[in-house]
Every structure is written in C-alpha cells, then in structure tokens.
Model the fold of this input.
Amino acid sequence: MVTSNLKVLHLLSNWKWTEISEPAVELALAQQKLGAEVEFVCGRGPADRSKRRVDYNARRKHLDPIHVLEMPKHFRFLPACQDYAALRAMLKRFVPDVIHSHKGNAHLMGFLSRGISKSPIIVNSCYQSDGPPQGFRSRLLYKLGTEGLVVINERSRRAALDHNGFASGSVQVIEPGIDLERFSPGRRISVDTQDFGISPGSFVVGVVSRIRDSRRLDISLKALAALAQAYPQLQLLLVGRGRDGAVEKVVEQPAREMGIGDRIVLAGYCEADRLVAAYRAMDVLVYAKAGSDKSCRTVREAMAAGLPVIAPAAGFLPELIEDQVTGHLMDPAGQNLAQILEALILDGDKLKAMAHKALETAGHRFSPLLQAERTLAFYRKIIEGIKK
Done:
C-alpha cells in the first residue's frame, strides 16, 4: 500500500447525499487512510433533512474535518461571495497541495479562491461517461484553472483531449470507488431480507431507480408480464421513490393493467442497511436506463453485493458489465429482457457463476483504496511536472 503526505482540500458543491456525493466522500476517506491530510467542504442543507445531507452522512462514515459552506449546486452571486471569503481563509490556514473539485460550482469556487497561480494545483473530477462539459465557462475553467482532470472512462478522456484542450498527461482515467465492505454479502446487517414481504422461493428481479417515466420502468414490467404465467415464482422488487402520484402512474396502474399487480413489491426509498438488504433479496438487477449519475453507482453497488446486472449497451454500462460473465447487455429498448430473464430462471448454475464473477470484479475494480492510490499518484505527477 502506497502512503502519502499530501494535503488535499476536497470541494463538493452539493448538500444532498446523492449522485457523486458518496464517491467524493469515499475518496477523501481512502486518501486519509493512505496518510494524506484531507479536509472536506460541502454545501449547507436544510436542518429538517439531516439524513439526506452530505455532512451528516460523511460524519457517520467518520470523515473529519468537514466544513459546511453555502456551496450550492449552481453558481449564485451572494453565496459565492460568502464562500470565496471562507475558502480564501481556509487556503491560508490549511495550505493544501491540491484542491480537488467535484461539480461545476465547486470547480469555479476553487479557481476563484486560488487565482491564476498553479499552487495549489486544481484537479477536477468529471463523472460523465461522454466527456467534460463544453460550455464557455467550463472551457475557460479547464484552460485557466485546471491542472488535472480525473475521468471515469477512456471515452471521456478522449473527449477531454480532443475538445477541451487538455494535454495527454493531465487527464487520468480512474473509476470511482464503492464502499465494498458495506455491500459485502458476508457482512452482518440489521435488516432482514424477509422484511420486504417477498414470498419464499421467489425469483426476484430487482430495480433500484427514481420512479419516473424517463427511467423506463416499463421495460421491466413488460418482461415480467411476458413471463408471469409460466413462472409463478417471479416477482419484481422496486426500490425508489418519485414525486406525488408517480408510483401509481408509472408502476401500479400499468402493473394492474398487465395483470401483474400482485407480483410487484414496492420497497420505497431505502438507505443504510435496508438498501443492502434489498440487494440481497434480489436474484438479478435490471438497470434499464441511467439517471443523472452517469457513473452508474447503482450498478457498481449491485456488483459489490454479488448481483448480476442486466442493462443496455449504452453509455458507461458496457464498460462495467461483461456480457454473459457479470451480467447481460440487452438491446436498448429491452425487447430481449424477458428472454434473458427466462434463461437465468432456468439455469441456476449460470446465475450463481455470474453473481460470483460480479462480486469478484467489484473487488478488483471498485476499491476506494485503489482509487485513492491512483488519484494521489496523479496529483504527484502533476506537481512534479510543474516543478520541472
């Protein structure tokens, strides 16, 4: 294990525990374990939503110190003035070697507080699978205020080189980590998988998704309807929530019309051990379409829980899922999903082999310590290059 004495200031312009918040916190924690001196800045959330806030969840994971500033997701003038003063004072006190920004406003505030000098270096994380943003502000920031860019895949790296003017040595592919211990099938948890009310002996198709039309939950419902008569043990466990009326409109009404209303188990929004228990209750996860998180954290969580994943060959997904090894890549419209599910229902050995390979792959690829080692090495390469 490589250790580091670098000083790193992470900036996250968000207060919600969602999208990239957890991977950013996991990276900071892993860097601390490797000896780096790390401080973390995040946005200020409402007092009545503490369990959804970044600072609350980061402290539960024992990340310290955490500084809560305004840091909204998008730039606003008055909060920016307050954050600028706080960050300038922080830079003078902490004197970091690296400012690592997560999200656009964090990137901007990091640059404004540092200025045009290259000390500390600014490294930005891009969590998009098709490359960094191309807007004027983003391009200006990349040119004037970015010494390094971390991307999640090779496609994004090529886009940064071709369209954003980065030199090849200043862009590094490093996959986001996952808390492997949390999702490990061998860890004791406080929630029983039977709490979801799934019938014993069921074959459970899982979906973890925001409940809205755009997430294509209809693909899973149609596949279930096609197989329901032949396979009475088939059930669908849906984890997620939506706006008022979304569950009825997107899930319950269509399921009743298809005659599969009794096959649907609605778990609602799940967090902590209840989410882990939900994964354990599933036999396979269907991920019909990525949401706002293009790094597909749900897929990586499922694999870390030892679940095969069925998803379309789109975006980052073909790079996460090895077809017929850790899961299946279906056609984008999901027309062959029923066929894939039926094959897995009939071949338990194949399903177990995929589950084992998914877990093994997650352990090799999604370790936060591996991510932290690579990121710290990237920082050092940039710093040494500037000194030459």
Observations:
- The two ends are 27 Å apart (CA to CA).
